[in-house]
Predict the 3D structure of the following.
Amino acid sequence: MDYGAEVGTIADHNRYRPSSTDGTLTITNVQLGDEKWYWCEGRNEADNVFGKAFFEVQMIPTFERSLNLNNTETREGNKAIMICQCEAKPNPKMRFHRVGYAAPYVNGVQPNDSRINIYEKPSSASHENQEIIPQEVVIEIENTTPNDTANYTCIAENSAGRNETTMIIIIQHQPNFDLTPPSLLTQCIWEEHPRNVTVLLSGFPQPSVSWARSDGKQISPDQTAFKQYFEPYWENGRRDEWMANLEINWEVTKGGIQGQYNPVGNYFPKASNNLGAVDFTINVVEAQLPGRVGGLNVTAKTAQSITLFARPPVEENCIPVIGFEIMYKLHGTNDVHQIALFPLDAGSSMKIDNLKSGSSYSVLVYARNERGRGEYSNSKIIETLQSTVPEVVSITSSTESLSNVSHQVVWEMPLDGGEPITQYLVSWREVGATVWNSREISSGSLWWTIPNLQPDTTYEVMVQARNRKGLSAKPNPPSTFRTRPGSTGPSAGRFSNLSLSVEIHYLVIIGVIGLFIILVAIDMICFCSRDWGLLACICTGTSSSPKHPVGDIISLDGAEYVYFIYT
């Protein structure tokens, strides 16, 4: 079988592998030049056959040979043009996507911003393969603003695959401090807490930042009381955003608030580049401890707990309250307890547990911020409720037993009424009966299995909790359950009671012990009388064969044998 292409006959070599047995031609490491007509001819003594096929080669979009992938820079107000070129086969669909935006731009004038127009066109560049015409997608932005500075992703896609590359548009503009949020307009400083006074700005080319104090003195970079930092702030992919910091060292400046380097006051950062300059103002104040709590209310209380609601201090401060702390004691004693409840949002409720029932407590609350804790609130006397019997116990177990002779009862721990629960009382009876059966259960258990029940019978059951004040109220109505039918039933699990009576257990144990004693006695008798063990004695005693002394000649099947016993 012969193979050929438009340029001649194909012979065996590294990339082309024809097969004369199954009529296939395998091409490895496919290249654009492999796209052509291929023919094959088969011959034998009877006839010749001929066939041909066209082999199409597709190419995933690539930007590697593109000449127009440069970042674009232009001044604010000018027109920005950025071109993305790719090579692909077949021709790709191309578009732009601004990084950070939910969806790519559509081609044409943008519905939400008529300044932006995107279109595709063939490129004027050429390719070594005439079948490939480089394609371009162009983004044009009229009347540019600093907000147009961003990363733009060029996307190309065809039936062979998809590829993308990222390009940058940078709008040159004079600096501004518009990125600085209102929360940074006033910043705090306090003792032993170096403070970075931070401003955020934009501008391109990269601006420089200088600082001055409220007394008009310029802060030089070599002053030990201040350290200056400047770094990119490209969190949104913008190459024109920057962050400037001025670190104020309290240790150096604290030589009296009236010292040469008073750390408190206004600071004036100034940003400038070749397109202009702009001033800004940051107010630095000394942080204060929180003021007195604005109010303290009791929102709930039990025999053993108090829940409080505290309002933050009324006084304004440059650092927020991060939580509250409680100090309390049994009224009339010096046994003081303290609870730290931070971090908490201002106004959160706070609960004090493990209190004595029917007792009065003195409670103080103070607010805390990053610097420390503030003034105590006015002392508030709060009395816990008197203790009572526990709440009604709720049974959670199934109404259908797993056994026909027992039932597992499960219940929830009730509120204890302000006194520890000491035990539970489980009571049960057949429906219609007048007398309850009862069993006391340890307070550490929340289940018990009722034994010796009748099959296929409905029972009432209830659980009561006991504390120092007495038993909880009986549930009304009590819960019910029904045992399974049949004379025997499946085990109720590892919590089931055995249905055998105590007397049967004792009889089985006595019988086993008695049998053991009899066997030991037989073994001793055999050993003493014949010097044999128990097994030999039993076998000898039960055998019907005649006995012979040692050394006797006996006849078995007409032959003579000597009878031996080895000891």
About this structure: The first helix runs from residue 250 to 253. The mean pLDDT is 81. The helical segments are 250-253, 502-530, 534-542.
